[in-house]
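The instructor's notes for this session suggest beginning with a concrete chain rather than abstract definitions. Hand out the sequence below and ask the class to guess, before any prediction is shown, which regions might be ordered.
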Amino acid sequence: MCVYAVASYKVHHVCVPCRLSFKRHADRSRVHSCPTCARPLVSAGHDFAPRRRDLRGWSVVAVVLGAGLRYEGRSACGCAKEPRYRPRTRADVRARRIAAAREGLPLAIALARPDAHTG
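After discussion, reveal the predicted structure:
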């Protein structure tokens, strides 16, 4: 058994319209809400990074979270740290949207690719 399986790691929960991020325990039975606007917070994963003043970064975050992806780099137990690719710029998102439309792929699959034009 993995030694990290007994620890509970906090997960980033975000409010994209307010550009706020909080670390909360991953409790599926409870819905966390934003203290500013009272909208439900979206679970963003363990490896969430943009600053509040980074408007361009938050526009990319909105697309990534809207596609159903999270910023994860851990396995379920937390012992395997393997960062997964997520776009960081609007140009990356634009290239992956074009590739998804051209190849007929869902946007979530195209956003998870390190290179927009290869599988």
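Then share the key points. Residues 90-103 form the longest helix (14 residues). The chain is about 25% helix and 15% strand.
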